[in-house]
């Protein structure tokens, strides 16, 4: 069958177009992939530049080691960030105490005890918690959890560290449960069958065999959840208060790093003032915390990873 000259030209053009598309697609995909990298670089540069401006006005030593945070003082503005860090760690500690046992227990149940039907129902319901807006969690902490706690412990103030800590813990449960369950489910079935054949109970298999085998994934999920708790904003802003304190009191008002950023961003400070630049210094400190937590999560995943 003969091919006309016009058909040969059309085929040649089609091949050229395909080659052109094949050459240009990798560059398009590279550009798309670079958006997140460039965005991260832009954020980091902005934080660094504005933070340097802040440290031209405030001593780095006073900022890092100072135990008093009074940016709105009429006499002398003090920018010791330790009270904000302590407030953040108070909430995070309570969140971890609440979330880790519940999250890992839920993961063990879903991985080792629940039937396939129950798993298909319970896991999505658990993950719905992650989709609830944090401002809803904040009002829940302020209007329900705090009054409930005051019923049993009258000394707890309306703004405190315990209530937001509990609710932040509830919020990060799905992250721990889901990621831990994925890590446990990745453990081969043959290991479970071997342990059961040796006479172990189902709980012994889950606790002494599956959990250690999936330890890297479990620890990574906890570290990522802690990073999420450190960066939480609306819950601590609504239920934690705005009183930075460098003490061990959990029942009184506190202020976290994110809550302070929200307070200043609402218009409490004019552009170009020291208070304005302080939010970048606090934001950079928060960025360092979350970056270190993510690096720790990656290290733990590689260090304790089991390959089957």
UniProtKB/TrEMBL annotation:
Keywords: Cell membrane, Membrane, Phosphate transport, Transmembrane, Transmembrane helix, Transport. It is a multi-pass membrane protein. Its main location: membrane. GO terms for cellular component: plasma membrane. InterPro entries: MetI-like (IPR000515), MetI-like_sf (IPR035906), Phosphate_PstC (IPR011864). Part of the binding-protein-dependent transport system for phosphate; probably responsible for the translocation of the substrate across the membrane. This is Phosphate transport system permease protein. It comes from Planococcus koreensis.
């Amino acid at each position: 069958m003969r091919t006309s000259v016009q058909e040969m030209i059309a085929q040649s053009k089609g091949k050229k177009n395909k080659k052109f598309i094949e050459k240009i697609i990798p560059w398009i995909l590279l550009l798309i992939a670079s958006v997140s990298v460039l965005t991260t670089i832009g954020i980091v540069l902005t934080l660094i530049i504005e933070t340097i401006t802040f440290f031209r006005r405030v001593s780095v030593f006073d900022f890092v080691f100072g135990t008093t945070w009074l940016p709105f003082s009429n006499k002398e503005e003090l920018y010791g960030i330790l009270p904000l860090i302590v407030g953040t760690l108070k909430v995070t500690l309570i969140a971890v105490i609440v979330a880790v046992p519940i999250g890992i227990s839920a993961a063990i149940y879903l991985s080792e005890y629940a039937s396939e039907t129950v798993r298909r129902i319970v896991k999505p319901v658990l993950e719905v918690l992650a989709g609830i807006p944090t401002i809803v969690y904040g009002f829940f902490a302020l209007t329900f959890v705090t009054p409930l706690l005051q019923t049993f412990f009258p000394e707890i103030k309306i703004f405190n560290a315990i209530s937001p800590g509990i609710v932040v813990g509830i919020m990060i449960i799905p992250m721990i449960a889901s990621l831990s369950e994925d890590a446990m489910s990745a453990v081969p079935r043959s290991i479970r069958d071997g342990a059961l054949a040796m006479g172990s109970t189902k709980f012994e298999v889950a606790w002494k065999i599956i959990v250690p085998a999936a330890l890297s994934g479990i620890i990574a999920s906890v570290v990522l959840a802690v990073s999420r708790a450190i960066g939480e904003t609306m819950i601590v802003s609504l239920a934690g208060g705005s009183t930075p304190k460098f003490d061990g009191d959990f029942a009184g008002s506190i202020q976290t790093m994110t809550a302070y950023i929200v307070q200043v961003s609402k218009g409490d400070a004019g552009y170009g003032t020291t208070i304005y630049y302080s939010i970048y210094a606090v934001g950079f400190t928060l960025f360092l915390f979350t970056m270190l937590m993510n690096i720790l999560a990656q290290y733990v995943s590689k260090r304790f990873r089991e390959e089957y």
